[in-house]
Amino acid sequence: MGASSTASIPFSRALQQPGYSSTSSDSDGSQASVGQNGCVSATFPKTRRNRLGYDIEQVEDFLEDARRAYTAERGEVSSISAGDIRLTAFAMRKGGYSPEHVDAALERLEDAFAMRERARLAAELGEDTLVQQRRELAQEIVDRLARPSGNRFARVNLLVNGYRRSEVDALADRISAYLTRGEPLAVSDVRRSAFRPQRGGYREAQVDMVLDAVVDIMQTVD
Q1: Distance of alpha carbon 27 from alpha carbon 47, whole angstroms
Q2: Mean pLDDT of 69-82
Q3: Rounded CA gap, 81 and 212, in Å?
Q4: d(Cα 91, Cα 159) in Å, to the nearest integer?
Q5: Residue 22's closest CA among 2, 11, 36, 6?
Q6: pTM for the complete prediction?
Q7: Residue range 214-219: average pLDDT?
């Protein structure tokens, strides 16, 4: 996707939920209502009334903030970044928005913001400089992941839970293969990664920081 097409993606298309239209049914089987302007009153399908979903008000407030940031005039500093979207979390409420649908939409929105940010950086730094910076960052990650399994990240003490080392190492092997040999790896595989807790496991903040950097690299080159 070239930089020239990035700015032309409307916010509504970046957010659009495939297969969910004005006649789509919510998770509890009811249909979303349509207002006089033809817009679906519920942005996403809702969970059943006795099941937890994302707090609707929080989701809508965040999307409104994201819309303002996305449609800001060129040159204005955005109040929301792709990284902010990646780290967004919502409270759980019964009958809330379907987490699966919201998460999928946020991933598309993150990609749209990332493309805009990449285009802006390329304009400021130059394409060659931007690519070189990402290559240097990728090499730093490759060097870290070349460490022996079980020692790729700092560990928490044995009284505290961290990320399960074997699971992190398995993903690290896939990332290393992607960065060094170009083996297939989807950005969603990194972005959606989750690890079980383990006493004396890897320090979560350090692992998360590296995975965020990997996502940034993938969004730059893919």
Answers
A1: 5
A2: 76
A3: 13
A4: 28
A5: 36
A6: 0.68
A7: 91
